[in-house]
Amino acid sequence: MERNGRLSELDALRGLAALAVMLYHYTAQYPKLFHDKDSDLFINFSWGYLGVQLFFIISGFVIYMTLNSTRSTKDFFVKRSIRLYPAYIVAVVLTFTLTTLYQLPGRTVGLSEALINLSMLQEFIGIKSVDGVYWTLRVEMTFYLFVGALLLIPRLVKNIEVVALIWLLFCCMVKVIDYWVDSKITGGLNFITIGDYCNLFISGIMFYRIRQGNNSGLPHVMIALCLLYQFIFSELITAIAVLIFFAIFYLLIFNKMTFIDIKPLVFLGSISYCLYLIHQNIGYIMIHSLERWGINSQIGFIAPIAVCIVIAYCITKFIEQPVQNFIKKRLGSSSKPVKTIQSQRVNS
Fold first, then answer.
1. In angstroms, rounded to a whole number, what is the distance separating the alpha carbons of residues 321 and 160?
2. Which range is least confidently modeled, 17-26, 61-70, 318-327?
3. 325-330: Cβ within 8 A, 24+ apart
4. Contact, 62 vs 25, CB < 8 A?
């Protein structure tokens, strides 16, 4: 169902993915990092990290969808920057301040590193991130560079299946060569072409193409190849999860996932970006503090979930959205979008 130009089922999936990643960090990753042991909690979301794979599929779907309202490569990067940076800068400042004041073991960085983090480029140049979850932003930004380059030649966007096939086959070739040679060159190519996740972005694009009405059959073939790629080059549990995500997306694009269109999940989806950015180290600080105060670890992760949701809502409502609206008004919009794909009302 679309609300204000947004596909609410996608927001619900975002909410589920964000919640899964957060629960993974609190119930499975925290004990390993701070107690050097596996979780003994009655709730253990050891599989929650797979929410990241779901995020990447959603990103492929949404980014290709937003090209309907994109005028140029410059316009694309401006819109992406407006979308990403306001909340990110707040998250960096807040997380750096709290981890520094609390001196969370193994999770602090220096001021110079934090300042570089503000650029969102630290993962490209080997600088430690203020929060470990920021690694996915490097992957997203690389994907945006790929899409931005395509916009220079609109014909490529219209024939995205062919471009995606070339991308997937190239990444496959790099991985096969790297398996036998294991060189810095192939490792670098895998990094640059996001070979570990390219199939997820591609599949998201293909799902949107099917929803768009592309009946050529090629998007379905590409999705099958993306799944095969996953089974060949990743762990079995990850491949099975991606198979499930693909099934969910098939249901979604044919309007069979309306049952997840419920307010709590859609709400989580609406704040999922901010929640993802701030939940890990800030949550760890709260869990660590509660342990020092003698709070039972079986329930110690519950309060951080609630607090981080409130923080994420406040950043979204009172900082991110007002700043985005202000910048958009200042920039204005006088040009018509480039007609690269079939028009459909959308929003990112």
1. 32
2. 61-70
3. 327/82, 328/82
4. no
Whether 153 maps to a domain, the answer reads: yes
Tell me how far apart the 2 most distant CA atoms of the chain are, in Å: 62
Number of H helices, E strands in the chain: 16, 2
**Number of domains the chain is built from:** 1
- Rounded distance between C-alpha atoms, residue 211 and residue 61, angstroms: 10
Q: Which domain, by its residues, includes 275?
A: 2-331
What are the pLDDT digits (tens) for 293-333? 998 777 889 999 999 999 999 999 999 999 999 999 998 75
Residue 347 maps to a domain: no
Q: What is the mean predicted confidence (pLDDT) over 140-144?
A: 98
Of all residues in the chain, the percent with pLDDT exceeding 70 is: 94
Q: Is 318 exposed, middle or buried (0-12, 13-18, 19+ CB in 10 A)?
A: exposed
Distance CA 67, CA 192 (A): 23
For residue 336, is pLDDT > 60?
no
Q: Rounded mean pLDDT of the chain?
A: 92
Q: Is residue 336 part of a domain?
A: no
Contacts of residue 111, defined as CB under 8 A and 6 or more positions apart, other chains included, come to none
- Record the tokens describing residue 211, joined without a space: 């929803």
The answer to the question of residue 341 being in a domain is: no
Examine the pLDDT at 338 and tell me if it is beyond 50: no
What pLDDT shows up at residue 214?
87
Per-residue model confidence (pLDDT) at position 340: 38
Instruction: Return d(Cα 239, Cα 157) in angstroms, integer.
Output: 28
CB 203 within 8 A of CB 220: no
Amino acid occupying residue 17: A
User: Using an 8 Å Cβ cutoff, are 73 and 340 in contact?
Assistant: no
Dihedral pair phi/psi, residue 36, rounded to 5°:
50, 45
Least confident piece of the model among 98-112, 138-152, 178-192, 240-254: 178-192
Tell the burial category of 324 from Cβ atoms under 10 Å away from its Cβ (0-12, 13-18, 19+): middle
Distances (CA, A) of 274 to 257, 259, 321, 335: 25, 25, 11, 30
